[in-house]
Amino acid sequence: MDLELKGACALVAASTRGLGFAVARGLAAEGARVAISGRTQAAADAAAEDIARATGAECAGFAADLAGDGEPQRLVADAARRFGAIDVLVNNAGGPPAGGFAQVDDRQWEAAFELTLMSAVRMTRAALPYLRKSGRGRVVNLVSSSVKEPIDGLILSNSIRLAVIGLARTIAREVATEGITVNNVCPGRIRTQRLLELYGDEAGVERAAEAVPMRRLGTPDEFASLVVFLSSGAARYITGQTIVVDGGLTRTTF
């Protein structure tokens, strides 16, 4: 299947490691030119070089603090200047810290709001003019399976990521006639550093895998394959959707 991504420009936020890195590599493997972002220029450059070497695609690294007002807008402008366009925007940010309701204070709520919701708001707002010009713009938000089934001890993620879903669903209807699609992809138990941090150690991660119907954790590449598809021309009639990649773990019907 031709995914129609050759030559397209994709901006993948928070893509120096983990799921963001896997998504950037997957898009590059399909021939997209990819803008990589990280907290430091050194990390962004290293990830871009790794992906370019592995795929032969044109990649460039950019430093940005996605929680900073003005930083997402600057990242979008820099990527568009470098590649001349933005056809695909992948919104991604590190997950908010773990904690139950009693353990989380106002400062942590505000920080999670800025990082999780407002980064997606600011990135999407800044990218929309370029996505409109593209004629086939794609926005994919990386969220969490917690939007389908809340996870104990993750009050910030459970609450604020749902706002990203509402944002995406609304924007999807507003831009549908312009050929732009907006979708959400929700990782479940995928083997990343974030999962190790949540479960404490390898023994905890292995116990987490036992609860998955497939009896294993997903890989970042398995997760990325869906994001790449939703970024492609083949997914032109899919918009406003929230899809979980979790090996069947989430018990919700929809």
Walkthrough of the structure:
- The chain has helices spanning 18-29, 41-55, 71-83, 106-134, 155-175, 193-199, 202-210, 220-230; strands at 9-12, 33-38, 59-63, 88-91, 138-142, 181-187, 242-245.
- The protein is globular and about 45 Å long.
- With 254 residues, it is an alpha/beta fold.
- It has a seven-stranded parallel β-sheet with strand order 3-2-1-4-5-6-7, sandwiched between helices.
How far the N terminus sits from the C terminus, by CA atoms, comes to 28 Å
SS elements, strand count: 7
Q: Give the low-pLDDT segments.
A: none
Strand order of the largest sheet: 3-2-1-4-5-6-7
Averaged pLDDT, please?
Answer: 94
Class from helix and strand fractions: alpha/beta
- How much β-strand is present in the residues? 5-15%
Helix content: 40-55%
SSE string, helices as H and strands as E = EHEHEHEHEHEHHHE
Would you spell out the secondary-structure blueprint of this structure?
Blueprint: E1 9-12, H1 18-29, E2 33-38, H2 41-55, E3 59-63, H3 71-83, E4 88-91, H4 106-134, E5 138-142, H5 155-175, E6 181-187, H6 193-199, H7 202-210, H8 220-230, E7 242-245
Parallel strand pairs: 1-2, 1-4, 2-3, 4-5, 5-6, 6-7
Helix pairs in contact: 1-2, 1-8, 3-4, 4-5
Keywords:
254 residues, alpha/beta, seven-stranded parallel sheet, 46% helix
Offer a concise description of the structure.
The chain is 46% helix and 14% strand. It has 254 residues and is an alpha/beta fold.
